[in-house]
Design a protein that fits this description.
It comes from Naumovozyma dairenensis (strain ATCC 10597 / BCRC 20456 / CBS 421 / NBRC 0211 / NRRL Y-12639). The chain contains 25 helices and two strands. By secondary structure, it is an all-alpha fold. Strands 1-2 form a two-stranded antiparallel ribbon. The longest helix is centred in the last third of the chain and has 28 residues.
Length: about 575
């Protein structure tokens, strides 16, 4: 029988009503208790969120009920800045290593030459030292930073006299320029991108900010920009702004942002085939044929932005002449004379060069042609997919495939270039598919591993290990030891309490057992290579043996991910944004 109860009415009479809701609640409680007794996790909506039951999720869980998530955003950004400041306390590229020093000195030197020399000499001055070899927007950015620095201490940027200066005051200022640039260009772009995708996919606000945190805590960019010392976050931030404008269908503004990204660092060209195909398709084929006004607006915005960047190089060419000055800047920006790869890098040319010496068997021009052919073959499928299916949710997979193709097969690649494919890969932390998240986490770890020789040379070993462990712990990669083997104080947040004492957090590994073996085996090999690198001297005949092993492992993992990425790109053409 259905239980009934009496209810007092306004007029004092009583009425009998069915308490079906009470009965339903009891049934649900019984089911929950049975699940708890069987040590099984509850299937809730929250369990489908990114990094559910990870330390990162647990840290931010208390803010879940808040109507406004401004406090969550504030905490994430503040924590990200603190981590970057902590890394910046360490050494940098070229610290105390005269006469050339390193990238820190190169950036400082560009800040002084852009202040004290006319534009006509920027790409000609002292090319044997640290001649300017980045596009004009980098030069303008250096000029602005140098002017601000000279306001506080002119001796930092006195042409000639300040060469090699390494005072703590200068280091603090230079670190702050990177921090300010990233705070203005990269962090807001990532927050907007993640919110946009989250809202269209009905993701909770706290879930969106957990994805933001996972992206901002990517260790490779932190260690290169705030440890080694560069301004990659400006270029990458402008690229994310390009994506944001494409999501909002502001195509001309997207073209402006991407041209600015290229004009800051030429490596942004790794993304150009995809953005070109997407904009072309949206202008000529989708949603209607030959949208001439849109095509004209994109073309006009692109030409005007390039003209505004390179125009000063031409019009202030000085005695060299505008054309000569412009050609010199392009020659400096694309240094083909340096060779097919720089130092040891985890790409096709460097790894296979161990077996077959390319430079001894081919001319420089031949290698340029072969690398061009291989690169086009590698990225062309991604470009064609975007041309035929210009869908927003395909952009990340297409950009990952294209930029990884450039990294693996293009000419004159160095180890820091891995930041290019890592950007769209890391943005896939917005996915709620644990199979995707596991591979994204894996790629971030492998990418950081390939940077180890560079970071070790810079004296950033401590920062490397702390960032590697912290980033993996936050997203739940160490869940197999939590909370079973660690005290509850190291499993913060209420989510683990709600799920019961015996609940075991899921590991961040894919469901496919073959991929599980590949990922775990690659981590074991990483550990072995680190061990021999620390404790065993390489043979005198092969001094770079451990570095070559590092590159070989990285190259193999990159190729496997690249192939899987293409599989996802092709399969996603028949899906929607909710299945990202």
């Amino acid at each position: 029988m259905v239980p009934k109860k009496k209810t007092l009415m306004k007029n004092g009479s009583t009425s009998t009503v069915t308490s079906s809701s009470s009965q339903k609640s009891k049934v649900e409680d019984t089911k929950k208790s049975k699940k708890m007794n069987n040590n099984q996790p509850l299937e809730t909506e929250t369990s489908k969120e990114s990094f559910y039951a990870s330390p990162l999720y647990d840290f931010l869980y208390p803010f879940r009920p808040a109507g406004s998530q401004w406090m969550t955003e504030y905490i994430i950004v503040l924590f990200a800045i603190i981590i970057r400041c902590a890394v910046g306390l360490g050494p940098y590229s070229g610290f105390n290593t005269p006469p050339m020093f390193g990238d820190f000195e190169a950036q400082r030197h560009w800040m002084e030459i852009t202040q004290y020399l006319p534009i006509s000499q920027w790409y000609w001055f002292d090319l044997q030292y640290w001649g300017l070899d980045y596009p004009p927007l980098t030069a303008f950015h250096s000029y602005l930073c140098g002017k601000i620095g000279s306001f506080f201490q002119p001796n930092w940027f006195t042409l000639g006299d300040s060469r090699g200066y390494e005072g703590q005051d200068l280091k603090t200022f230079m670190r702050l320029t990177v921090l300010a640039s990233e705070s203005l260009c990269y962090i807001p772009a990532v927050v907007y991108f993640t919110k946009w995708l989250g809202k269209r996919r009905n993701q909770s606000p706290i879930g969106q900010f957990i994805a933001v945190a996972a992206i901002l805590f990517q260790p490779s960019l932190i260690l290169i920009d705030h440890g080694h010392f560069q301004f990659n976050s400006v270029m990458l931030g402008l690229t994310v702004y390009t994506l944001n404008n494409l999501l909002d269908e502001f195509y001309a503004f997207a073209a402006v942002c991407f041209v600015l990204s290229i004009c800051f660092k030429q490596m942004a060209l790794y993304y150009s085939p995809i953005f070109f195909a997407y904009l072309l398709s949206k202008s000529l084929f989708h949603p209607r044929l030959f949208n001439i006004p849109r095509f004209a607006a994109i073309s006009f915005a692109t030409i005007c932005t390039f003209a505004s960047m390179f125009g000063p190089i031409y019009f202030f060419g000085g005695e060299n002449g505008g054309i000569t000055n412009l050609l010199q800047s392009i020659k400096r920006i694309f240094p083909f004379a340096r060779g097919i790869f720089e130092d040891k890098v985890a790409n096709f040319w460097c790894v296979t060069n161990v077996i077959f010496k390319y430079k001894a068997n081919f001319t420089q021009e031949q290698l340029q042609l072969y690398s061009l052919i291989l690169t086009i073959i590698a990225f062309l499928p991604a470009m064609l997919v975007i041309l035929l299916y210009p869908r927003k949710y395909l952009l990340l997979y297409a950009l990952s495939a294209c930029s990884m193709s450039f990294y693996l097969f293009s000419f004159q690649v160095h180890e820091k270039t891995i930041l290019m494919p890592l950007l769209p890969i890391t943005l896939l932390y917005t996915s709620t598919d644990r199979n995707v998240l596991s591979r994204v986490s894996w790629m971030n770890n492998i990418g950081l591993f390939t940077l180890w020789p560079l970071l070790k040379k810079d004296g950033l070993s401590l920062q490397y290990w702390v960032c590697l462990i912290l980033s993996n712990w936050l997203i739940g990669n160490f869940s197999f030891i939590t909370p079973r083997f660690l005290p509850k104080v190291l499993t913060p947040g209420p989510s683990i309490i709600q799920l019961g004492e015996n609940y075991r957090r899921p590991t961040l590994l894919p469901s496919n057992w073959i991929w599980k073996v590949i990922i775990v085996l690659s981590y074991v090999m990483m550990g072995v290579i680190h061990f021999v690198d620390y404790f065993i001297e390489p043979p005198s005949a092969y001094p770079d043996l451990w570095v070559i092993l590092n590159c070989t492992l990285g190259f193999g993992c990159f190729v496997l991910f690249w192939l899987w990425n293409y599989y996802k790109l092709f399969s996603m053409t028949k899906k929607n944004i909710h299945q990202l």
